Amino acid sequence: MIPVQGYSGQRLAVLGLGRSGLAAARAIAAGGAVPICWDDNQAARAQAEAEGFECRDLSRDKGFDDIARLIVSPGIPHLYPKPNKIITAAWAAGVPVDNDIGLFFQSFATQEWDNFDQIPKVIAITGSNGKSTTAALMHHIMTRVGRPTQLAGNIGRGVLDIDPAIDGEVVVLELSSYQTDLARSLTPDIAVFTNLSPDHLDRHGGMGGYFAAKRRLFAEGGPDRAVIGVDENEGRYLANQMTEGNGDDRVIRVSVAGKLSGPGWNIAVKKGFLAETRKGKQVASIDLRQIAALPGVHNHQNAAMVYGALRTLGLAPKVIEAGFHDFAGLPHRSQPVAEIAGVRFVNDSKATNVDSAAMALRAFKNIRWIVGGQAKDGGISTLVPLMGSVSKAYVIGQDPAPFLPDLAGVDHVVCTTMQAAVQQAAADAQPGDVVLLAPAAASFDQYPDFEKRGEDFITCVAALGKIPV
Length: 469
Prior knowledge:
By secondary structure, this protein is α/β, with parallel strands linked by helices. It has helices at residues 19-30, 42-50, 85-93, 100-107, 131-144, 177-180, 201-204, 207-219, 233-242, 296-312, 317-325, 354-363, 418-428, 450-462; strands spanning 11-15, 34-38, 54-55, 69-72, 97-98, 121-126, 149-153, 170-174, 190-193, 225-229, 251-255, 265-270, 273-278, 281-287, 335-340, 343-347, 367-372, 390-396, 412-416, 434-437. Helix 5 crosses helix 11 and helix 13 packs across helix 14 (450-462). The mean pLDDT is 94.
């Protein structure tokens, strides 16, 4: 646990008592302050009270009279589409609003660091897609080389739940826009921006607000190094804002869309080959094409982000490359499940929207595509140009109708259930084919979440009875 510093003897309110909220309450208490908790859910309040925390409806009159700060859980809107009533009460009372990420950066460093030979570092990763894989891959390689490391944020443990840093440790944080948007302190040593595509637009009041939330990770704290994907205008803008000149190697530009030029520090991936250039000269390259857990351009971008961040820590290219090769990948994200009689089965249940599904479709050839679920606005029409790699589609979900018009040009069959889709795809598949679960839809019509959907896919593959998985 990271005890919260700077509030000893004061009362800090905690709004939202999920994983991050309860962790914040515990860390506040560990630092000598008093957490005052609230959640509209009575069961959540009961859990907090069982741990000895006081619960109070902060929206009532004078609810903030003795409160020094309000700590808000990431799922609670503070501006768009409408601020939570307790947040507006804090504004009216003049009480600063923060979140657990802000408390973490405020409290992570301690006086014990004065005795360390190597000061701990924080690498924070944000962006629309690839954050989890990038964070997990980075943590994997740091562990592999024997460097003390912890993984936290949107993946792994809550930021205030991790252990206090030890000498030379590297903490890897995956941070969503919900987390960066409100934090009053954001001071990573290395900040990583993967890419940007439309997401959470209602929460941020549009694309500009969404990008502004991501940008805060770079603008608020001034990281020592910034690794920035520059394949969108927002990334190019951000890189330009961070640099002091064409040769400023504090900014590492990353592209998977084309060759980068100039005397700065650049990492580009073309046709599966990663190339690092500095001062206009190539200094290293890696062939990413045969790395099983990192298929496709989107995963090559993740690898390039990791490569850039770890190079700033002094890791050699060959060391990083070795870590790429024995990375197992993340569950439900282009996850290799099995190979049966020359047919590969890949679980990308996390592909809950068309952008994620497009990345999966670009990553493979000869695809037996399992698609469908709870349809999202706009359907899958933007995926039609990518269906040339699809041999046949197998539609799952309670209502297949929204998907069928866009599948008119592709051989397809309505299977409804995962079991029927896996069995039919396996029966149809030929050696060299890939049975790919990339639903391009939410899971809630049949499953509580995308994880359960992916687990069902794995179970159905195992039930084919030919191999253990």
